[in-house]
Write a structure and sequence with these properties.
101 residues; alpha+beta; three-stranded antiparallel beta sheet; 4 helices; globular
């Protein structure tokens, strides 16, 4: 068996996760930041021009999507490094507070 059902889905969630992670890593290995040209895949995330927020590469890597649909999805996203994303979206993801949670 190839590890996939006829629908293109993996039998095992672990296999799907590993495949998604490998696909995203391979995709980012050949990309660079749209704004500054940084090419370190550990720093790169995805930014959708039609949305007003970035999507972390880790979210896509844990999606479990089959390789083909995942790659098609990635084509619509711009790649930006963490610094450029913070410049584009300056709002902090959380507020720093003096009081504990």
């Amino acid at each position: 068996s190839s590890g996939r059902e006829t629908t293109g889905r993996f039998h095992s969630p672990t296999a799907a996760l590993a495949s998604s992670q490998q696909t995203v890593r391979a995709y980012l290995a050949h990309k660079q930041c749209t704004d500054c040209g940084a090419a370190d895949p550990r720093l790169l995330d995805f930014d959708c021009p039609r949305r007003h927020r970035p999507l972390r590469a880790a979210i896509l890597a844990t999606s479990g999507w089959p390789r083909g649909p995942l790659l098609v999805s990635l084509l619509g996203w711009e790649v930006r490094c963490a610094n450029c994303l913070r410049r584009k979206y300056p709002r902090a993801p959380y507020e720093i507070s003096d009081t504990p949670c």
